[in-house]
Every structure is written in C-alpha cells, then in structure tokens.
Amino acid sequence: MIDLVYDCLSSVGAVPKRRVRPQISLTKMNSTALPGGSLVSLVFVENAETPHYVVRIPRDPRQDERLRANYSTLLALHKSPELRGTVPQPIFAGNVKGVLLTIETCLHGSQMARELLNARRENAPNEEIRLLAIGWEWLAKLHRATRRELPQDFLSTRRALLETETAFLQQRGILTASEAWRLRESVGELLDLPLPYSRCHADFNPNNALRPFDDPTGFYGFDFEFSRNTVSLFDVFEWARSGWLCLPGTPIVSQEENNTRLSQLWLQTHPLGQSFHATLSEYASTMGVASGDLRPLFAGHLAVALAAKLQSPLGDQSPDLPTWQNALHYEIKRLN
Amino acid sequence: MEQQTSLECTECKRSFPLEYGFPNFASRPHYWNQLTPEQMEALLEMAEKDGYRHAIEKVVGLFVDPYLVGYILNANRADFRTVLPAIADRDVLDLGSGWGGVAAALSPCCRSITTVDTNPYNLRFIQMRAKQENIANIRVVRNDPLDDARLPFPDDSFDVVIFNGALEYVGEASQSGSPQEHQIACLKEARRVLRPGGTLLIGIENRYAYLYFLGTRDHSGLRYTSLLPRPLASLIMRLRTGKAYRTYTYTQRGYHKLVQDAGYSEDSLYLAFPTYREPRFILSGNDDNAIIYFWRRHATHVTHPWRRNLLQFIFHRLPTAVIGTLVRGLSHSYIVVAKANK
Question: At residue A290, what are phi and psi to the nearest 5 degrees?
Fold first, then answer.
C-alpha cells in the first residue's frame, strides 16, 4: 500500500519525486466493519509529528459507493469559499493497480465528541451549548452552499421509507398500531410543505467533527462517506440527537418532563432550546411554518434512526435501546 | 457424468481423495477447533439448511464464547491488507485458515485465495460459506499440520502467504524437535511456494506483551509461560499438563531473526491494536512519531481521569525514542511482513 500511496502523492506533486523515496508510514485507523465501509489510514511523511494525509480504500472493492460519495462531496464543498478550509482538501482519487484509492488532507483539531464529553463532565452546559451551536452554524453554511430543488419523486420515497420503518417498529412491538399511524399522519402533513433540500453530511455526529486547536469558534467537518442529497433537517436533527441526546448526562426522558434533555431541546426558554430554535427557524421560514412546528419531523427522525439501529448487526443488543424507545414514545405522545 | 473422486500427483503418482469436493492431502489425524466434531456437525447441518450466518449466530454463542461470532463473521478480519502490496491481481495462500474469516474478507480483493487447514469441518464450513456468498475464488485444501512443512503446491504458486494466528501453533502437533526449527522449516516451505519477490505476512502475539505480565493466559493455557525461559516454561507445563511447552512466540527481534533464518528479507514490523485478529489500528513499528501521535490521541479517550492523566503524562513527557521502544516492546500483537528471497 505504501508504494501505491507514494505513487499517487508524487503524481499530484504532494511529495517530491526522488530516486530514494521519502519515508512514508501509514497508520490504519478504526473504521466500521459494516458492509460498504472503507479502510482509512493516516499518512505520515518524512517522520512528521502529525499526519499530512488520509488515505481511503474500500474494504470490499465491489462496494465503493461511500468512498466515491466522500470524495465527490469534498470536491463540491471545496468550491465553496465559505466551506473551503473547514473540510479536508481532496488530493487524489483513482484506480491504481486495481485498487480504488482516495487521498485527502488530514485536519488537526480536538474531536468534538471529546470536547462535548469534557464539557458535560465538568458540568459546563454553556460550553456544551456553544459547541453544539458551532456545529449547527456550520451545517447552515453547508446547506446554503449546496441547496437545490426538491426532486419530484423525493417525497414519495420519503413517505415510503417512513411507512417501512414504522411498520418495522410496529412488527418489533416497539410502536403500537395507533402510535405508528399517528406518527405517519403528523409527519405526512409536513412532507407536503417545501422542505429544504441540499447536500447533507448524513452522518453528522460529534465523532465526525473537530474543533481547530487555534480557533475556539472554528469547526471542521469530515468523513462524508454517507453524504447525499436529502432534506437538510436530517443533519440538524442528527446533530441534536448525537451531540445532545446521545452523550451521557441528564436523562433524555424521565418523570420530571421539564428537566430532561428532550424537553430542553425544544424549550425556547432553555439556552440550548434557544440555539436549536434559532437554527431551525432558518429552515422553517422557507417552509412557511414556525420552528416548533417541525417537531413531528424530529419524531420521524428518531423512528428512522431507531429502526436503522435495530436492523444493524447486533443492534438489538444495544443497551441504549430502552432509552431510545422511551424518547420516541415521548415524542409521539406529544403529537396532536 | 462421473464425479472425480481423487487427485493424482503427476510426479510421484500418489493419489489423494477428494472429500466433500476438496482435496485431502492429510496423512495423519489432527483436530483443532473451538467446537467438538459433534457440535460442528450440528452447525454444518444448520448452515446447510438455514444459511451459514444464521448457524454461526445461533450455534457458536451457545457452545463457546459469543465473541467468536464476530470473529468468524466480521468483514474487518483482513484489514491487515493495508500493509500488503496491491493484491488485486495476485494469488494468496492462507495457512491455518480456521473458520475462513480472513479468506472471506480478502476474497473480493485478490485474484484467488487458497485456504489450508487440517480440520475438515472448518473446510466444509468455508466451502459452504463461499457457495452461499457466491464467492468463486476461494479454494479449499486439507493438509497435515504445518509442523510437517509440506505444502501440496508446486514452487512459485502464490504471491502472498498468510499466517494469521497460525505460526505460534507450528510445532505443537509434533513431539520431537524444537518448535522453532519446525517454524523455520514451515516458513521455508512457504517461501518455496511463493513467487520471487512474493510477500509473507505473519499475524502473531508478542512474547513479552504487556497483557502477559498482567496475567493473561498464553497459548499454552497457562499464565506467564511466554515470559519464562523456554526450558522452565516446558518444565512447568509438564508438571501442570503433562505436555511440553511448544507454542513459541517471539519478541520483535526474535521475529526478525526467524524470518531472516527462513530466507526472507526486507521485513517490516507493524503493531496491531487491539489484536492482529481484528486489527482496528495498525501502526508502523519503525515510526516513533506515528506511535506517539496515536497514543496521545488514544489517551484523550480514556475515561478514568487518573489513567488518562498518567497516559497523557507519559506520552507528553517521555522522550520519543523511549516511548517508541516501550510501545514496540510491550505491544500485544505484531504483524510481520517480509519479502521472499529466491
């Protein structure tokens, strides 16, 4: 692999072509073992203290869609002046000796998941909210830069997905027939509105985000392997779910309804709620509704996320499942 | 059409039976598996009827450690290929293939993969898995233990030979001779079937892995045996189990010498975390800066505050060379890659 990487890097002038090859070492990083994933390695050049590049190859060469999605998204985002510098720079993509390989620059910063967890451990909710707000701001830039028309067949696909996933949850005994119906009806009404549609990260969670070491208000997004064109709110909700609800801390749902992470998210008097609503209002205004009216879509998002978790290998053994079921029930109860 | 029932060697004219569709070159009985033959029969029956994945998920966890389910089925078993040269148009030999996890994961990435094992049940399972997954480039061969250093292939047949969790057991099936001699002979035999410039990959434990100091059991089934001088380990083994200590692992220098003695060159050492079996992280063993970068990053994820602080202190304060030496010397798993001299 190292020879391949060197050939690619030297072909684009990223490392000098010499008779004696500069020292290059690869560190293979952890990546999902689920089908369609990539092998991701960091490239260290000439004994540098930090890696310069990230190399990706598909784990199974027959399933390279995610690799292609990542690279094409990086190319697209790099054209946006607002986003350039906040995402890795695409360096190389090509088939070398029968291996599809992509190279992008390596961003350096503190992992957002770590920052959020530290803030939570240190009981610093304002810092937590600030970090989440930075993520939402970055998302707004991403969605503005890549906004496009909603395709004609998109809504029917969305409806079909919601049908399938709620039916699955019903079959697994997680939703009752009336809960599934209520969810489909509430979400279905919103699907008739002009939903904001753009290029989305589609796996936007604190593990795929960094805060630059030298800029407390900066933000880096990476790992666009799931990236696709979809409803922009997908990313916004996913960031709330993974960054606010998923990390350990205050219970997501409990008997004291006003002091849970779910209620705080939607409470306009809570600092986090304010930040979340401020983000949502930009999207809601294009649909001609208030930010709070989007809540059923969040319930739909939770349902789809829960179904996806259950369908993944060993996903039904996850210890978090009861919490997520409670959260979904809580949200469905609130639907009119 | 009459089905072929045996293979005949064109040179020595010996005949070898085809059992369950794969050639059997084994001349003596040998059985190694986590499951008993009876359990394997039950598993194979279910795999035939309901699919191999279903059988593994339902049967293996019942009989042995549920960890084995992921170990057999996960697609990340061959992630070590990041340290191999490009293998898209190459032929691979997987020695001691076990359940075929490596072969299944590697098969889409290479031209062909030949799996060799002594256990016919495992080989039947691999064959069934390949059929159910429509994998056409896996070839299954039953052979004697690797101690015998006899591979039923002509010279220069493969581009890559893999020993993933196999070399440490070479020597265990024999009662005479030093295990090290068996291992060298086996590596030489692997070199014979490698094409000129072909690649050897060994995934194996470090003899002085930090976990062994903490009391993790060695391949012998006992604690601390890999840390002891071989004769002493053997004496303890004989007293405790009635068998000699024959599952040899080595230090980084030991592996370097082993592959050099077997006629390989340009060997590189990689550190695999948490193990070479399912390597989530693989680091180049000769890049101290990469090692430090990795561990500093890793230390920030440690949950316990005092452990995190201790690790951060170590990886920020100690000199780079010291950390590199310590990490290399105490890592649990190594991946050794070397080039065959012809």
Answer: -90, 160
